[in-house]
Amino acid sequence: MAQEQYTCRWAALSLSNIASVFLPDLLQPRPDSEPIQHELVCVSTTGGNERAAKWMNENKIPNQESVKVYNSWEEMLEKGDFDIVYISTPHTLHYEHVTKALKFKRNVLLEKPATMNRAQYQKCVDLAVQQGVVLMEAMWTRYLPATKYLTEELLPKIGEVKRVYAEFSFPIVSPDLAHSSRFLDKQAGAGSLLDQGVYALTWADIALNGLGAGSTITDVAHASSMSVPGVPGEVDDIDTLVLSKHEKDSKQQKAVGIVTTSMTLTGSSKPAFYQRLIAKKASPAVRIEATKASIAIPFPPIRPQELHVQWYGEEFLGEDGIEKEEIIKKPVERGWGIWYQADVIAAAVRDRKGSEKQGEVIGAEESLRVLGWMDQAREQAGIVYDEKLEQL
């Protein structure tokens, strides 16, 4: 029997730059046959109704007249009539905003990185379970067709992963960028590791732990950082991490991960942001090397659409004696594909309607693991933020 169609009603806490990408992507027209639909029903902004109206017009939000505008995010969380709140404020504010939302028993999709550190997100996870709601970090890359195919179809077949390279460098910081920009403001959580490294570390986690960690643990064996030149506050820029996956008891090393990120390298910062983001690069952004095959993922790693696989063994050799490359295309169905994650949390909320079960945190283990690696890397590389931003 076909499942009844469900329309998920969204609230937006902040009309941020990333909200200007996510919400239009979420609200694209869908075939009536799809079981989940989405609508925006309320937003909060300190800019008032005029600011909200301008933002909705610029982003072509449908049914604007039915979107309720709140001038207080706390009032929206307390009184708004919606199913899920999308929180996309600077990550230094995430802990305050998500804990307040959870206390009002709201389901939450929270932008990445979920919080400033692992301890903060662990508190959020515990609170969501206690309050009986759904919480999810918006690591949208995990839910794209190419990523799902890799984890479900390829990882079980390529043997034991021994090494992974994960790189995400993108020039969001140019020499003429104002020092007051969010990307250079340490009080707003600026820094390459938290802003971009979270993607590269997520790919390392998918490769090293995509089939489960089992009896192993992965730690940061080395981390170094170079700051953005000429900017006060030592904003981290060129970061390099080495991950070591080893047995918990014997400490025998099983695999290694090399993760790099930068917000000044590589390429020009002049073309439009999204033009640069989809520009092809010569080398792959991610390379997974296992005992039976290797997989390369072209840039950009945040939005993979094809997987380049080389299988090992004589039966896969070409006439030149080199393993043939298989290119598996798994394109995004429409838009940027940020909406896939929204379908995941919407389905979880739909399935819990009227339930008294304890709460659910989608991807909790993975999010906590990556946040833990960033904690370790920051300590080793000397990346420091105001301690008030780290408090519980």
* Spatial order of strands in the largest sheet: 8-9-10-7-11-12-13-14
The average pLDDT is 93
Total beta strands: 15
The top level CATH class name of the largest domain: Alpha Beta
Enumerate the spans where pLDDT stays under 50 for 5 or more consecutive residues.
none
Q: How does CATH name the architecture of the largest domain?
A: 2-Layer Sandwich
Topology order in helix (H) and strand (E) letters: EHEHEHEHEHEHEHEEEHEEEEHEH
**Can you count the helices?**
10
Q: What is the third-level CATH name, the topology of the largest domain?
A: Dihydrodipicolinate Reductase, domain 2
Specify the overall morphology. globular
Class from helix and strand fractions: alpha/beta
Domain Gfo/Idh/MocA-like oxidoreductase N-terminal: 17-137
Organism: Exophiala xenobiotica
Keywords: Oxidoreductase
EC number: 1.1.1.179
Give a quick summary of the entry.
By secondary structure, the protein is α/β, with parallel strands linked by helices. The protein has 2 domains: 6-141 and 337-362 and 382-388, Rossmann fold, CATH 3.40.50.720; 145-329, 2-Layer Sandwich (Dihydrodipicolinate Reductase, domain 2), CATH 3.30.360.
Question: What secondary-structure arrangement, pairings included, does this model have?
Answer:
Layout: E1 6-13, H1 19-26, E2 36-44, H2 48-58, E3 68-70, H3 73-79, E4 84-87, H4 94-103, E5 107-110, H5 118-131, E6 134-137, H6 145-154, E7 161-169, H7 192-209, E8 216-227, E9 236-247, E10 253-262, H8 273-277, E11 286-290, E12 293-297, E13 306-311, E14 325-329, H9 339-351, E15 360-362, H10 364-381
Parallel strand pairs: 1-2, 1-4, 2-3, 4-5, 5-6, 6-15, 7-10
Antiparallel strand pairs: 7-11, 8-9, 9-10, 11-12, 12-13, 13-14
Helix pairs in contact: 4-5, 5-10, 7-10
